[in-house]
Amino acid sequence: MPELPEVETVCRGIAPVLEGRVLTGVLQRRPDLRFPFPEKFAERLQGQRVDRISRRAKYILAHLSSGEVLIIHLGMSGRMTLVPAAEKEAQALGKHDHVVFDTDRGDRVVFNDPRRFGLMDLCPEEDLSNHKLFAGMGPEPLGNEFDDLYLSEKFRGRKTPVKNALLDQKVVAGLGNIYVCEALFYAGISPKRQAASVTGKRAARLVPVIRDVLQRAIAAGGSTLKDYARVDGELGYFQHNFAVYGREGEICLKEGCGHEIRRIVQSGRSTFYCPACQG
After folding, report:
1. 40 neighbors 94 (Cβ within 8 angstroms)
2. Residues 85/107, Cβ–Cβ less than 8 Å
3. Could you state, in order of their start, the residue ranges of all structural domains in the chain?
4. Residue 12 bridge partners (DSSP)
5. On the CB side of 181, how many CA atoms lie within 13 Å of its CA?
6. CA 160, CA 162: separation in Å to the nearest integer?
7. Where are the alpha helices (DSSP H) in 156-233?
8. Which residues have C-beta within 8 Å of that of residue 106, sequence separation ≥ 6?
9. What kind of architecture, by CATH, is found in domain 148-273?
10. Architecture of domain 4-130 in CATH?
11. Can you tell me the distance from the alpha carbon of 83 to that of 102, in angstroms, rounded to the nearest whole number?
């Protein structure tokens, strides 16, 4: 499933094409994805100007002139693909191209989702924070609200492993398995350590590392492991920079370490770490 850096990369890719443009055509080619589309979905989008593209956690948000927000989640296999106006006629729609957005400049954005685990919804702008997808969600890890004091307070007294705590969207929004594994490695913190012990100096060490890992991943266009691709069809390449994720049995990259990367399962998810570097 695409994580925060992949979704941010998609947002930055579609923003130059959609922001300020009017949706002159919206084609909904099936009644549902993971859930049914909102009532009169295409009709409510048609003719609206896209004022702004933003991201909340792992969701793409298109803020419309109608005062509604189009919420998009890519699910396991969803992609947003750009088709320039000059290439539209030459590119036939595929079986899994479920929603098509055409703009007044002639460009096209296609949502493709073979496994149909993605979703789309519409919500009034003023109700967005209370939408069932976002209510109670924690701050963005790249935002000013997320700092060591905040994290220390959220972790205080919490006996769950720090890896699991960081994946809790009520603690911090948008963090996923890949980047939590990577951040804990660079911070030198064991994924098995209780969250309650990652306060104070450890939290102060962890927060900037989380930011750095995410920013480096965004700069690399995200990570392509299975289905993810950028809006221009190119693959992300941060997976070539993984320090621990997916490297079970390989030697730790930290100079002088020499230990093998291990994999354990926490709450049904694979965790990769170096037992020597992460105390």
Report:
1. no
2. yes
3. 4-130, 148-273
4. none
5. 26
6. 6
7. 162-167, 177-187, 201-219
8. 84, 85, 88
9. Orthogonal Bundle (1.10)
10. Alpha-Beta Barrel (3.20)
11. 9
- Output the pTM of the full model: 0.94
Burial class (CB in 10 A: 0-12, 13-18, 19+), 153: exposed
Cα end-to-end distance, the chain, whole Å: 29
Residues that are catalytic = 2-3, 58, 269
Tokens encoding 20: 């300020």
Question: How confident is the model over 73-125, as pLDDT tens digits?
Answer: 999 889 999 999 888 887 889 999 999 999 999 999 999 999 999 999 999 99
β-partners of residue 32 are 36
SS3 assignment for 35-59: CECCCCHHHHHCCCEEEEEEEECCE
Residue 128, token pair as written in the block: 């967005």
CB 23 within 8 A of CB 50: yes
Token pair 């919420």: residue: 71
Instruction: Find where tokens 């730790």 sit.
Output: 252
| Intervals of the chain under pLDDT 50 | none
Residue at token pair 């994290």: 151
Using alpha carbons only, give the angle 148, 8, 31 rounded to the nearest 5 degrees: 125
Task: Please state the separation of Cα 187 from the chain's center in Å.
Answer: 21
